[in-house]
Amino acid sequence: MMLRLILISALLATPALAADDGAKVAAKYNCLACHSIDKKIVGPSYKEVAAKYKGQKGAEEMLMAEVRKGLPGGKWGPIPMPAQQIDDKDLRTIIRWVLAQ
Q1: Which residues are listed for heme c binding in this entry (predicted)?
Q2: Which of these, 69, 75, 33, lies nearest to 53 by C-alpha position?
């Protein structure tokens, strides 16, 4: 019984840990210099990005490609986003966190 409670507790804590990891990794790569969770700074807020791509098949891969290549001005505003050098694991963590907003 005790083992079952421990496993359930661990499973319930996993999304919170994943969210915390996403925020930490985004901070590590200075994403928060141009983006915030709920307000446009230079780039769109993460909630705006999540709303635009909610339920869209392939959104994760498309966003990963856009972050890697950068974006010209016009998609989210007049200021372009430069290409980012983020390893695959960290980038996937950030993108999943953004899409979960």
Answers
A1: 31, 35, 81
A2: 75
What would the pLDDT profile of 64-82 be if each residue is shown by its tens digit?
Answer: 999 999 999 888 999 999 9
Residue 19, pLDDT score = 54
| Percent of the chain whose pLDDT exceeds 90 | 77
Q: Which residues contact 37 (CB under 8 A, 6 or more apart)?
A: 45, 46, 47, 101
1 is in an annotated binding site: no
Q: Does residue 22 contact residue 94 with C-beta atoms inside 8 Å?
A: yes
35 is in an annotated binding site: yes
Is 34 annotated to bind a ligand? Reply is no
